[in-house]
Amino acid sequence: MGGTVTAVSSNGEYTFTKPNRGSVTLLTGLGVEGDVHAGTTVKHRSRVAQDPTQPNLRQVHLIHGELFDELRREGFTVQPGELGENITTSGIDLLGLPEGTLLHIGDEAVIEVTGLRNPCRQIDAFQDGLLKQVVGRDAQGNIVRKAGIMGVVKAGGVVRPGDRLEIVLPAEPHRPLERV
Question: What region holds the MOSC domain (predicted)?
């Protein structure tokens, strides 16, 4: 199983969107070099306010580019990096991966999947009504989060658009992704 990296993005400042780059460097145990969310402890403001010593399970944010196609059909225009993700992919059901999945990217980088992104109201400030498109409910009433997944860097390396992405599933039983 595999896919492709279609875009990489980072930002050294707290903003909702992240500009696209020609490459990003993943740093083992930290995240994306120069990105505001890199570090061993939490960097997201709401989590820092709760407990700044929590481990950073959100070092890298990945979104499947197919989400942008889905949003376009609903009248929204979203480009890679605009939802704050670091890596945009195609050809992989990121949301269907189990916790602990390893994503081998390019020649060296490895990300361990930790959970689902839980988007906040800032997404509606970016485009009104977008939150309802990326967080909803299934037929059974369960919350469905579609704004990507989060992970930690297990092996560093440079990641570029066009890099192959290979999936290594953890041992069973698989645990479904929860919000982190």
Answer: 18-168
Please check whether residue 173 lies inside any domain of the structure.
no
Q: What is the identity of the amino acid at 56?
A: N
**pLDDT digit string (tens) for 15-64?**
999 999 999 999 999 999 999 999 999 998 788 888 999 999 999 999 99
177 inside domain: no
Pairing mode, strands 20-21 and 143-145:
unpaired
Is residue 180 in a domain? no
Query: Residue 117: which CATH number?
Result: 2.40.33.20
Number of domains in the chain: 1
Ordered alpha helix ranges (H), the chain: 45-50, 66-73, 122-126, 130-134
* pTM exceeds cut of 0.85: yes
d(CA 72, CA 74): 5
Domain of 45 in residue numbering reads as 2-168
